[in-house]
Amino acid sequence: MIDTHLRRMKEVVMRPAARAVGRYVSPLTITLAAGVVGLGCAMAGAAGALGFGLGLWWLNRILDGLDGAVARHYQRQSDLGGYTDLMVDFVVYAAVPVGLAVWAADSGVWLALAVMLASFYVNAASYLFLSAVLERRNHGAAARGELTTVTMPGGLVEGAETVVFYSLFFILPAHFAPLFWLMAALVGVTIVQRVVWAVNHL
């Protein structure tokens, strides 16, 4: 919902770190490091080390923002980099709640998790194909002046909201199921928003 506004701010905040780190480390290496940290976060969740897992989650998010900032600062953007970044995000977004559900070992949590991950699946289809169509029509990220590899039509739940929800998963472990259900419902609203947008604009 607020990602478009936050990206510009994030770019400014990340610029000093991007300038320093980018001299020694490639954007793709940072992306892969983010993936390793994200999987570590999932494993920490599965082991019940929730404080450590929360720290790894935030480190994953910092690295996820840093790779693009480095690529843009040093003019090293690439389609492979954008693709890898998105793939790593999807893997981490799936692995972290699964790890937490393993630790919870509760059938109610697993049902809520299944519905939430199903909503992610449909949501991915709702915006990735829409992004592809917009890119084909030359109305993509470059045409819109966006900082992402491909345009990502807005919705109620985007990256910033996901960061908040996943943080709450670690902070409020007694409420896994309600949080999973709530996130699934809000992602459902996001899907409807994008479908309506597509009907009105395609």
Task: Detail the topology: elements first, then pairings.
Blueprint lengths: L2 H19 L5 H21 L2 H24 L5 H26 L2 H30 L4 H4 L14 H13 L4 H26 L1
Helix pairs in contact: 1-3, 2-3, 2-4, 3-7, 4-5, 5-8
Mean pLDDT: 92
Radius of gyration: 17 Å
First-to-last CA distance: 21 Å
CATH class label: Mainly Alpha
For the biggest sheet, the summary is: none
Secondary-structure element order, N to C: HHHHHHHH
- The CATH architecture classification is Up-down Bundle
Question: How many distinct beta strands?
Answer: 0
| Number of structurally distinct domains | 1
Per the CATH scheme, the topology name is Four Helix Bundle (Hemerythrin (Met), subunit A)
**How many separate helices?**
8
Task: Please state the structural category.
Answer: mainly alpha
Descriptive report:
The protein has 202 residues and is mainly α. It has a single domain (3-201), classed as Four Helix Bundle (Hemerythrin (Met), subunit A) (Up-down Bundle). Helices cover 81% and strands 0% of the residues. It has eight helices and no strands. Helix 1 (3-21) packs across helix 3, helix 2 runs antiparallel to helix 3 and helix 2 (27-47) runs parallel beside helix 4 (79-104). The longest helix is centred in the middle third of the chain and has 30 residues, at 107-136. The model has no long low-confidence stretch (mean pLDDT 92).
